[in-house]
Amino acid sequence: MNLCVFCSAADLDDIYTSPAREFAKETGRRGHTLVWGGSDAGLMKVMADGVQAGGGRLVGVSVEFLQHKARPDADEMIVTRNLAERKAQLLERADAVVVMVGGTGTLDEATDVLELKKHGMHDKPVAVLNTAGFYDGLRRQMERMEADGFLPRPLAELVFFIEDPVELLDRLETAADREAPGEALRTAPLG
Which residues does 91 contact at the CB level (< 8 Å), separation at least 6? Predict the structure, then answer.
């Protein structure tokens, strides 16, 4: 499976890097490919290192103005002209999408993918690795959007939030293996 991961290129505390590292190693060990922003810095580097160490492939999608930060030993590296092209390439090459901790760039990528899914432009599983409750606020906001009628599809059909990296990978593999279209992945409400 080609797993697109949106995450930060910043150097982060172990509370964020440890779950990402676990997810990355398990991704590689299971023979999956990481499709990511191509950077060899921060959490992006942690992900690439882990997937590669586990035996997985790396497909980077960089952008011209960040090409100098691209990982030199990726199995494949695509360089796009701008961020919009980059997002389109990342989604096109992915079988599933994972959102990890990050800043405004990660949030932009996540909301773009969810907006496309909301309108039926793709039906790939989208999961949020909610490390240390980082995305609790986003989850609450999306639950309110659903409750107040702003989402034309149930939230559980758009995205699921999970804190455990191995459980998240298990759920993605199950979702990718499903043959029944429109089968929703359930997310437990925040308590």
Answer: 4, 97, 113, 116, 122, 124
CA angle 89, 93, 95 (to 5 degrees): 135
For strands 126-129 and 57-63, give the pairing. unpaired
Distances (CA, A) of 80 to 60, 65, 165: 11, 9, 30
Report the alpha-carbon distance of residue 143 to residue 72 in Å, rounded: 41
Six-digit token string for 58: 């790396």
Do the beta carbons of residue 89 and residue 78 sit within 8 Å?
A: yes
Among residues 44, 46, 51, the alpha carbon closest in space to that of 30 is found at: 51
148 vs 176: CA distance, rounded Å: 30
Its CATH architecture, for the domain 2-175, is 3-Layer(aba) Sandwich (3.40)
How high is the mean pLDDT in each 10-residue block of the chain (191 residues)? 96 96 97 97 97 96 95 96 96 97 96 95 96 97 96 94 96 75 39 39
Longest dimension (CA), the chain: 47
pLDDT (0 to 100) of residue 176? 77
Task: Give me the pLDDT at residue 178, please.
Answer: 66
C-alpha 69/C-alpha 43 separation (Å) is: 13
So where are the chain's domains?
Answer: 2-175
Instruction: For the full predicted model, state whether its pTM sits above 0.85.
Output: yes
